[in-house]
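Hi L.,

As promised, Aminopeptidase:
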Amino acid sequence: MDQTLMETLCNVPAIASHESLVREIIQREANEYSYDLIEDKLGGFAYHQSGTGPKIMLMAHIDEVGFMVKHITPEGMLIVIPIGSVRTLSMYMQKVRVTTYENQQYIGILNAKLNDKELINDLIYVDLGCDSDKEVYELGIDVGNMVTYKADYQQLSENRYCAKALDDRCGIYVLLELMKRMQGDDKDVYYAFSSSEEIGFRGSKTLTEIIQPDIAYVVDVACARDEFDRSYRNNRQIGKGPMILHYDKTMVPNYNLIKGLETVAKHYEINFQKDMFVNGGTDGGSVHLSHYGVPTVVVGIPNRYGHSSYSIGDFRDLENTVGLLSKAIDEVDYESI
């Protein structure tokens, strides 16, 4: 596995509709292959590996949770709003990076004021060390600028690492690995990178309408609520393999695709977990409703502490996800869908 690529993907900032920096990394990697580029108007894009048989779409989203500047106060503070569902406790005393429209970056401290009765943050702000709004404006910072965690990638052990934005840089990494390993394969595959998933699965709809796939595999991540729970209730344990999702709030996946993934995993002895999302959903929610309907399944990569300043992942889960999807794609034909 390519630790350097994962580090590069995680360290760049990219909230919804501000995804140019991560897009540049993906395109630099993809330029090594002779795939056709397809783009929508929201910032999403896909690479087409032309072949025969059903049109297969693999999708991962390129945005991360973060914040956006809403106001600049006379005292030089940045009032920000969350972009995506950020964990409440991850809004206190965190190092963040403010990125201007010209891609100039400044470090500050994120903090919040808690509403004790409702356990929500009434005011979220970034302190850049400035004393006036004039100082802030002179830096080139303005309303609408992107704010993301300054939480650089770190290797914790041989297989485990921590970084921001594992949701969904893990999915991006898996798609890039599949592009590399499946060169010369005769399947008709679209490697799709969607925009703005964290604010309502927006880019997946536009990209799917362009591609009009016959089937879709959505690659995303999920974490357990309680990391001390290693029982049957926790099917999102890192190091235990990818999760094959049987349900979420936005979609009941296609049974044939679920069965196909599980059959492949058992045949090739690939570790996997069976999971359901009681809350939330993925790009699969909009993908499966696109055009005349698209048979869709979601493959989840387990993390710890999602939607926060740092998450923890395991390279063995990434490798098992790549292996599972590559073998599953080899088995796809018109009869199987």
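Helices lie at 3-11, 20-30, 133-138, 166-181, 202-211, 255-267, 284-287, 315-331.

Thanks again for sending the construct details.

K.
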